[in-house]
Amino acid sequence: MKHSVVALVLLGALAFATGAAAHTPLASSVPAEGASAPAPVKEIVLVFGGDVRLTVVALNDASGATKAVADVPTALAAKFSLAVRDELAPGNYVVTWRAVGADTHVVSGEIHFSVAAAHSH
Fold this sequence. Notes:
Elements: H1 2-21, E1 26-30, E2 36-38, E3 43-61, E4 66-67, E5 77-83, E6 91-101, E7 106-116
Parallel strand pairs: 2-7
Antiparallel strand pairs: 1-3, 3-4, 3-5, 3-6, 6-7
C-alpha cells in the first residue's frame, strides 16, 4: 500500500512538471534579457513558442516611471512588435509582460535591459 501511494505521488508530480513545461514560453525578445541596446529603442519585440493572447506589456525605467508603448494587440499570435512611444534615455529598463496561451494558462515574465548612450562621431 505504501509503495502505491509513493508511486501515485511521483506520477502526479511528473504529470504536473510535464504540464508546466507545456505552457507557451517566451522564446526570445528584442531587446533580449540582459542586453545593452543602442539608442534609440523604437520597439519591443516578444516572440513566444506558440500563439498567445498578450494581455499586459509595461515598460518602466529604473525609478519605476512608466514609459509609453503601443496598445497591446488583441489577436492571437506568436510574435508581437510594440512601438516604444517615449524616448528612452540611457539607463536600465524592465519590460513586464503577461499572456494567455492557447492552453488557457497564464504565462508572465520580465525582461531587463539597458539603453546605451549614443556615440557621437
